[in-house]
Amino acid sequence: MAYEATRHADLKVRPRRLRLSQSVRRLVRETALAPDDFIYPLFVRHGEGSKRPVESLPGVYQLSVDKLAAEAREISALGIPAVILFGIPECKDWRGTENFAEDGIVPQAIRAIKDIEPDLLVISDMCFCQYTDHGHCGIINTPDNPHYDPALPPGYLHNDHTLELLQRASLAHARAGADIIAPSGMIDGMVAAIRSALDSDSAQHVAIMSYIKYASAFYGPFRDAAHSSPQFGDRSQYQLDPANQREAFKEISLDIEEGADIIMIKPALPNLDVLSHLRETYRQPTAAYQVSGEYAMIHAAAQRGWLDLERAALESLTCIKRAGADMIISYFAKDALKWLGASRD
Ligand code: PBG
User: Fold this and answer.
1) What is the mean pLDDT of residues 184-198?
2) pTM of the complete model beyond 0.85
């Protein structure tokens, strides 16, 4: 007993002192979420007066262009500085033609948002999976298309032909007023190709946010929302293997060398190691994408009463920021700010 008493008396450092009350916790808190941290994803579709709920993403809608004005006003009023756009085309084909059409769904959406809220940054997701009939992120080596090369494996994603399409589509989106192009296809050389296309078209002011994207199961609900599931195979020939960390670091250095302005890690929560390395080592503006599956999981568990929606969402977002994200793309962005506005702990 004497021994115990001495030991306790020696305990000068008691970290619990700084956890005792709400006020002291607020005082020592290292990470606080704010409107400036967020980017809100929007799905845009053709048609008029359309606001279609996405079943697997509660509270998320596919919106027609005329519905964007009200949405943009709400997002701006919450203080969120940026949105990222995903287009759902009218027609799909082998090379995703609508993605580089000057009047495609995304250029229309960009113009509509800029008309109403010129200061709201518009980021355009730059990928072909929503636009191709096979659902892959570029041109696929099949005998029915003009780029077929029998020397390449069947089903191979043609890297360099895809780069040309990415250049054309990036120009179409930049001309419509996109502030940031966000290539998400994990195509080799995509940042350099897009940078040179933008620079040769008087768009040197348009920034590039490059995705470091894992081949993840957590994109399931997004593929419902954007109708972008691959019709055969999967995306492992171009997206990163979740088992690999060094490979992600290599992609990060390449993207920075090629001129990426912002690097984004996706999905966020399973890859906080990569996020934290990026922030510590490269000291570049760092983004994280809390993807559809991360959002849907929390909602599904909350619906069953197994998790507290608000606490689980805010904890995930706070920890993503703590790991190093300067900005977080999240379907929770609007709700998170409403919850934060309503509570003080
Ligand atoms: C590609 C793209 C995807 C997501 C964002 N951009 C889908 C994919 O790679 O299959 C997923 C985002 C999410 O799950 O919320 N256009």
Assistant:
1) 97
2) yes
